[in-house]
Amino acid sequence: MKKEWFALSPGERGLWLFSVAVVAMAGVLGGQTTAAGVLGPVIGVTALIYIARGAVLGQVLMVVFSLVYGYLSFYCRYYGEMVTYMGMTGPISAMTVVTWLRHPSQEENQVEAARLSPRLRWIMAVSAAGTTWAFYYILKYFHTAQLPLSTLSVTTSFLASYLMLFRSSMYAVAYAANDLVLIGLWVLAARNDPANWSMAICFAMFFCNDLYGFVSWRKRQRQQELLKGQEN
């Protein structure tokens, strides 16, 4: 962990410190009374800063965040969020650890970015459509709160996880879209429990981190492709 921390640039450390300060303060001031409610968002923003850098540690932390977030979602009857993160995002992040370890870049502790092949794009589109259709009826059966938004969250989460698994920079765009959906979900939940404002603020910070992740991955991808071109 110490080695990965010093690998971050000063700007990345600054973004992480700001994000942690915001989500931690939001949790405390928002009335979060559980360790999961306060520490979960901190783990989440930490995962995102390392994922933005292409570090495997980010995926390990995402597995932990998925478990914590699933626990928090259960008590708000956001069963779609619970199932999505504990049954899809977490397991795919665990698979991504293996994939990223198998495709290191020449830069130390970073994964090699890739572009989706036409075949993988078709598989993604078909799988996303099937996942959306199936989860809509599953969530409807369990009387999930805010069903349309919860279903949309499943779709965007699936796309983000799929793209991340195959090392595409577009994962960050899908996660940013998911962040906007989740901000809406938790703002609605805050109408009944003001403590949920902390989760809305958490995903606002996630949105900022995912925007940075996209910029970071695109820059690294161009550098890696340029280096490959020079080698050839």
**Mean pLDDT level:** 87
Main sheet: strands, sense, barrel: none
Tell me the Rg in angstroms. Answer: 17 Å
Order of helices and strands: HHHHHHHHH
**Overall morphology:** globular
Indicate the proportion of strand residues: under 5%
The number of distinct structural domains comes to 1
Which structural class do the helices and strands define? mainly alpha
Q: How much helix is in the residues?
A: over 70%
Low-confidence stretches: none
Report how far the terminal alpha carbons are from each other. Answer: 35 Å
Q: How many helical stretches?
A: 9
Give the number of DSSP strands: 0
Task: Summarize the structure in short.
Keywords: Membrane, Transmembrane, Transmembrane helix. It is found in: Membrane. It is built from 9 helices and no strands.
